[in-house]
Amino acid sequence: MTVDTSVSETGSSAGVKRRDFLKVLGVSGAATAAVGCSSGDVEKLIPYLVSPDQTVPGVSNYYATTCRECAAGCGLIVEVRDGRAIKAEGNPEHPVNRGALCARGQSSLQGLYNPDRYRQPMKREGDALVATTWDDALQILSAKLGEVKSRGQGSRVAFVNQHEQGSFPAFLDGVLAGFGIAPHLSYDAEAPVAVLQANQAAYGAAWPAIDFSAASLIVSFGADFLDGWGLPVPQQLAFAEARGKVEGAPRFIYVGARRSLTGLNADQWIPAKPGSELAIVNAIAGKGSAAAAAEAAGVGVALIDGLVAEVRKARASALLAGGFGQDAGELATAVAELNKARGNVGKTIKPADGYLAFEGVAGHVEMRALAERMNAGEVPMLLVRHANPAYTTAPGVGFAAAMAKVPFKVSFSSVPDETTSLCDLILPDHHGLESWGDAEPVKGRLSLQQPTMDPVFDSRQTADVLLAVAKADPSLASKYGFADYRGYIASRIGGNQNLKNALPTALVSGAAASRTAPARTASRATAKEQSGEYTLLTYLSPTLGDGRGANKPWLQELPDPVTKILWQTVVEMHPETAKRIGVADGELVTVTTAAGSLTAPALVYIGLRPDTLAVALGRGHTAAGRYAEAGENAWQLLDAAEDRAGGAALGATKATLVKADGKKQRIVTTEGSGRQHGRGIAQAIALPALLAGEEGHGHHVFEGQASTEFLPGLRSPTANDAQGEFGVPNSKDKGQYDPEHWSGAAKRRWAMTIDLAKCTGCSACVTACYAENNIPTVGASWQGPVLLPDRTGFGANVTRGREMAWIRLERYWEIDREPKDVVFDPEHPDFDTNFIPMMCQHCGNAPCEPVCPVYATYHAPNGLNVQVYNRCVGTRYCSNNCPYKVRYYNWFGYGDPTRSQYAFPEPLHWQLNPDVTVRQKGIMEKCTFCVQRIKEAEHRVSLEGREMQPDEFTTACAQACPSRAIVFGDAADENWSVAKWAKDRRAYHVFEELNTYTAVVYLKKVNHPAPTASATA
Amino acid sequence: MATLAHPDDLRRPNIASADIQLPAVTSYEQVDNEILAVLKPTKAWFASLMLAIACLGLGAFSWIYQIHQGLGVAGYNPPVMWGVYIITFVFWVGIGHAGTLISAILYLFRAGFRTTIYRAAEAMTVFAVMTAGLFPIIHIGRPWKFFWLIPYPNWRLIWPNFKSPLVWDVFAITTYLTISTTFLFVGLIPDIAVLRDRETNPIRRKILGFLSFGWRNTEREWRHFARAYLFLAAFSTPLVLSVHSVVSFDFAMGIVPGWHTTIFPPYFVAGAIFSGFAMVWTIIIPMRRWFGLRHYVTLNHLDASAKMVLFTSLVVGLAYMIEFFIAWYGGVKYEQDYFWNRVFGQWWWAAWIMLTCNMILPLSLFSQKLRRNPTWLWILSIFINIGMWFERFVIVVPSLSHDVEPWQWSSYMPTWVDYGLLIGSFGWFFMWFLLFVKQLPVMALAEIKEIIPPRMKHTHSHGGH
Amino acid sequence: MMGVFSELDSTVEAIEELKQRKVGDLTVFSPTPRHELEHAVHPPMSGVRKFTLIGALSGVCFGFWIAIWGSNYWPLVVGGKAISTWLPYVVFGFEVMVMVGALSTVFGMFYLAGIPRLTMTVGYDPRFSRGSYGIFCECAPEQLVEAESILRRHGAVEVRGEK
Predict the structure, then answer these.
(1) Element (H, E) at A598
(2) Distance CA B236, CA B386 (A)
(3) For residue B149, which residues of chain A lie inside 8 Å, CB to CB?
(4) At what angle do helices B374-401 and B84-100 cross, to 10 degrees?
(5) Do the chains contact at A678 and B69, CB–CB below 8 Å?
(6) How far is it, in rounded angstroms, from Cα A266 to Cα C97?
(7) Sorting pLDDT into bands at 50, 70 and 90, what band is A213?
(8) Tens of pLDDT along B186-229?
(9) Which of B162, B183, B457 comes nearest C10 by C-beta?
(10) Which residues in chain A have Cβ-Cβ distances shorter than 8 Å to C77?
(11) In angstroms, rounded to a whole number, what is the distance separating the alpha carbons of residues B433 and A1016?
């Protein structure tokens, strides 16, 4: 795999070419949109000046690069077809994510193709931002910088950059220094700075690797390591690996007021009041009594005693401190001390192979200090890149207001946001997938970043812009010998050739240029005197982060793994709280804090203390694009309080809650009933029971029972009957459905196993499916009926259950009553939660097939339940008859560019997978087991004239899964791992009693109850 | 009619037998004069025709809008993938059962009370099936491809899936429409001949002459006519029973809780006859009043049909009870949850509208007083129509909204498009019916003549009047 | 020779006498089928049933055939069921049987009753469709007188000769 190094000038008109190319391919109307930014000049099908690599129409190239969606710096393999990036997957060789990729990482494509991206430089004229040329923009910038330099104001100019690792920060500081400007602030609103500081002090590593497998007990004090806290993918990989061991897997206890996704994956939940975690840690450390801790935490003392006992007994435990309380720093230190005392360091906590993701990150406190300086009029010029402090800071900071006091403001962001919209000059940066760069995620390993395609719009990489500016200044020009930033990167790893050699994996040993982060100037702000009977937790959304994902429809449409809310902001409260103030789901409530107030529908959540409220951050943007407007902005509720390290205290705001008179909104959720009603869909088994062989196998209820005779169960129904009643009785001739048939059509039986012991419910598979299969998002407010719609606003379609996710994450509470009737018992607050990914089960006896009047769905010899879009007339009978309800219907022309419901506004449609049809309105669709990948693999092996290797390829969901819970393959071939997993003692089929003989086999989740049965209720 | 003895005085308990008299009708000429008098258009008729066409217009607009925008404009709420359209389809198919039942089955049973009502009922049947036939097309996602359900010869020889109940439907409905239309028309031939012979306008006379196939009332014609009519009746009888059975297979063949039950065919057929008779009342009772035909459709006729309605109502009620019993007795958790949810949960209101209108109110027909009270029968018929629409609602929607997969449980709320098409279907139906009553005799002249005593020379030899 | 009657019994008597005397062959008209007339004329059994039987048989065969052949032409398995199956195909057998059977019955009736007849041939009177009976007696010229007298004797309200 190589890359085009001479980026041609034709990128901005490439859309037209893409369009024609797709016309040639005859793919789907969706891609035939008129392209706004087309230059309409000479058109080439492949948007390269000279085809740099072996670009063959219809054949993909794969480029390795580095993900920039969060600080982690995961490795990507980007699939590029005809010069367009169409899919982002994890780089299997990358030390951080080992091939997996989270939903946010996969959505980087929708940042690249975001319809609201700046298409060229902009400058402010009066109140409006108007388009301009790069020459003009660069002149303005150089002039302003020269001004600053000549006046010697450089030290007072501020540059705020979205925190990223690698050489760029140092490079940036270098250029800034040339103009006498102070080192930039590397800002990340998601960084848990208090924990970083404490870890650094205690372990000598800001983010040590956590080896869950080595632990026998995991205790998390609000550390949401599966929700995006820290480095989500490696943490989830390690956690799932550990839990997947089943026997000897670590037990997991979560301590925190709200059960996050991490909390729901715990075996036990101790709902400690916010701020009381420290007391509990002290109790474990013997510095305080369990009774006092229980008192402070507001839970039964038995729970604390049990916790203390378990930690003290544990062979090796992993204790994690997280939380965004004001005492986060103290808590982290205490936990680190405890880990040391328990001898976990080096065993489960491994500073040696720690991650460098957060090196030199700045926190909330710097932004506040900057805002104060700006307010005082001390800042003549502000430069900001990708960071959005005007949105991600508390109102008390007044960042947006302060910006008004700055004479000249420059933004390098490529997508609009609240901060950029206030700037005077916008020099849109390349998207990460168009840029050069590097990162050093772990010591000594460089993860390179290379352009995967020509720029979509007329943007320029900031590094090159700075370079140009610097070179324009004669006094600086000498310092920069290299032509562009690519040259700089090459020079860092020993020249062009080394770079070329390294690019196929984008991995090379080496170190990124180091910088010295500016010393912390400001002092910590203590919270104002607060009142309010509730503690408000404003948490970072697992899907949208601090809000940077809000303009990506994939992420907006991805249900929150815990609340299953999408396109909407809700106020989470315990059922008791809801009863107390007399509201039910959807009734509007107003949360008021010292900082501000927010009115949103109430949502009952049983995983929350009655004295606590929770609202997700990240929605309700005002200037971040068309999709980002959904929901409410919870940052507005945040008080300026900070922790010891100057991180924003997200979980320490006092709030009052009142019912907003009578008004109601529909909850935008994908959840029907949150309980299984004893139907055994997502099954779990306690480890002792499993070891005692109580998983109920070995007994034959009847011949071919799906669970006990997996392969016959998959095969025989079709194979046996294929011959029909009019053939010779007990003839062997089953036509092409006979595994022995010359065509070999029935040689394989594609199947899937999903290990629920590993699945954490993170939903990365859902986004992977959207990306691979051109699934439309339907939640935008303009995607409903045009005439007299009875439901309006974001998520209107979803309130009618019309979301299209071919694979969905079902989250079931194991409780004996409706959630709204749950009462909080401090002695026994615990409840189980089971996640299960549900997609087309490709039944051997598929109920959907015989009812279709036109054979639009039928059973292929290789076991696939085929859906023929072109034949479908849309009677929807198949969906009615599907027990799993995994068939999705095109209610509107989501793929038709001429319609308001169009799901892929230009250039989003450039991401569409050419191998998959974009379905038209009025037809049914569903999971195909990524049939296009199956066919690709089959063609590949036949072209190469060889047999298919076991596990040679896999589906999009399995590929992305950061838990490695999904295994796909040929169940008819013993050498494929799916065939082995299907025989696991935990294997079961959903709704087995319906005799559908599904091809998807689930492996029961394994719970690890407390050693003493009394600890968990 | 004032000079005539009031027909209601004469009560005949065994009205359902072939032996029936119309005491107030004395001569063949009177039959012609009175029934053909109906054909004269009136202002009220024009007004109602306009209303019907207006409703049809609303329906047409809704459909065009829906075809352009996609089915999303209707209130579908997955997994409730079937809604008002399928409900209305089954509703109209059900209505379409009374006609052929009356003209065919009651003919074989020699039930005399059919004579004066069957023509209107048959016309109702034809128009109801015409209405029903539209809804499967309205409801599919790509209506312009509906013909793919029909096994028409095409050059790739792609055939529909003959195992799909929807294809069975296509055959059942097409056959039913063809046969009931044929039946209606065959019965009309002699009466059209009557019109032809009364007609003065030469052009109309030509047309009627053409439509009557030159019928001459010869004994030879009558002989074959009677024979053919008998065979048609013999064919239509099992057909009536089969059509709604096949429709019920749409549900019974699914594995959806509340659908997957063997009681559906008889249950649906009974329901269809029940609703059909209700619609016959809705039409006949105003007709006999406004067209002054009270002495043709006497209280005895209504009384007899009321017994029919009462009987079918009891059958339907029994079916409801058996459904609940089996759900409990079968011990399938899905079914039990579903039926609880149907009657006491999410959908209690729909279920109770159904039970009240179809089970409880018709019990009033045990009283002969009410059976012979046209006003009450008409009010009741409206309740039954509503009740039967909701029966289909209760079958279609709650089952789908509460299937085996709890995560996908949902609700359902129709939009103005659904209602528009529902109203439009009534407009379409009544437009045809209104046009019919002013063009062709609403009662079978020939058959009425058959039952009134003929003129005789020697009156003693006949015990007439 | 055509006679128009207003009473049923007189018509019957006239028919009986005409037949008795073997005067020509008769066509009897009546506004509605009456058994009295049928007895008087006692014609052969109607042949409609043959058409019905043949139609029904060919219908049931075609119904089954199209379903079975259609399924086997594209042998696709759905829901693990057999390619083509007897039981559900009974629906097609039955429905097509009814359809073809009924239509051929109607055809049979038309054929046997000699309709459609597009011209009003001799010997018809509009009154026949209203309330009157009629006897049209085709006979040799020498019998005309006798026929007329018989018709008149039995009280025909009108007797006229037609060519």
Answers:
(1) strand A597-604
(2) 27
(3) 853-854, 873
(4) 140
(5) no
(6) 66
(7) very high
(8) 999 989 988 888 888 889 888 888 888 888 888 888 888 888 98
(9) B457
(10) 718, 721-722, 737, 849, 858-859
(11) 71
Please state whether beta strands A1005-1007 and A857-859 pair in parallel, antiparallel, or not at all (unpaired).
unpaired
Q: Do B263 and B319 contact (CB within 8 A), yes or no?
A: yes
- Inter-axis angle of helices B299-330 and B374-401, nearest 10: 20
Give chain C's end-to-end CA distance (angstroms, integer): 8
Give the burial string for A810-822 (b: 16+ CB within 10 Å, else e). Answer: bbbbeeeeebeeb
| Cα torsion C29, C35, C38, C39: sign | negative
Pair B162, B101: CB distance under 8 Å: no
Percent of chain A with pLDDT over 90: 72
Query: Residues C27-76: pLDDT tens digits?
Result: 888 888 777 787 777 777 778 889 999 999 999 999 999 999 998 888 88
Tokens of A308: 């203390």
What is the rounded distance in angstroms from the CA atom of residue B294 to the CA atom of residue B302? Answer: 11
Q: Is residue A55 within 8 Å of residue A61, measured between CB atoms?
A: yes
Q: Where are the domains positioned within chain B?
A: 21-40+76-152+169-413+438-451
Q: Name the residue facing C105 among B174, B209, B232 (closest C-beta).
A: B232
DSSP strand pairing (A75-81 vs A60-66)? antiparallel
Q: Which long-range contacts (CB under 8 A, 24 or more apart) does A659-663 make?
A: A659/A581, A659/A582, A659/A583, A659/A587, A659/A588, A659/A589, A659/A590, A660/A587, A660/A588, A660/A589, A660/A590, A660/A599, A662/A587, A663/A587, A663/A588
What per-residue string of b and e applies to A220-252 under the rule 16 or more CB within 10 Å gives b? bbbbbbbbbbbbbbbbbbbbbbbbbebeebbbb
C-alpha–C-alpha distance, residues B228 and C108, integer Å = 8
Q: Which residue in the block uniquely carries the two structure tokens 């378990």?
A: A310
pTM of the predicted structure, to 2 decimals: 0.92
CA dist A621 and A626 (Å) reads: 9
Interface test with A, best of C68, C76, C77, C91 (most A CBs within 10 A): C77
Q: Quick check: A186 and A167 in contact, CB under 8 A?
A: no
Tokens 């206030």 belong to residue: A422
- Residue A881 near chain B (CB below 8 Å): yes
Q: Residue A170: which of A408, A489, A548 has the closest Cα?
A: A489
Buried b (16+ CB within 10 A) or exposed e, B346-359: bbeebbebbbebbb
Percent helix / strand / coil, chain C, rounded to 5: 55, 10, 35
Cα gap A136→A118, rounded to integer Å: 16
**ipTM for the predicted complex:** 0.91
Tell me the C-alpha distance between A1009 and A67, whole Å. Answer: 38
DSSP for A171-201, please give it.
Answer: HHHHHHHHTTPPPPEEE-TT--HHHHHHHHH
**Three-class SS state of A1000:** strand
Return left, alpha or beta for C42; rule: phi > 0 is left, psi -120 to 50 is alpha, else beta. left
What is the separation of C-alpha B94 from the centre of its chain, rounded to a whole number of angstroms? 6
Residue the block writes with tokens 């049909």: B305
Phi, psi of A13 (to 5 degrees): -105, 10
**Distance of CA A930 to CAs A768, A933, A959, A968, Å?**
11, 5, 11, 10
Instruction: Look at strands A808-814 and A750-755 and give their pairing.
Output: unpaired
* Contact assignment for A847 to B255 by CB distance below 8 Å: yes
DSSP of A674-723 = SB-TT--SS-EEEHHHHHTT-S--S--SSTT-TTTSHHHHHHHHHHHHTT
Closest CA to A73 of A210, A2, A204, A167: A167
Decide if B415 and A790 are in contact by the 8 Å CB cutoff.
yes
Which residue do the tokens 């004329």 mark?
C41
Q: Vertex A531, ends A530 and A536: CA angle to 5°?
A: 85
Are A859 and C80 an interchain contact pair (Cβ–Cβ within 8 Å)? yes
- Distance from C-alpha of C52 to C-alpha of C33, rounded to nearest angstrom: 22
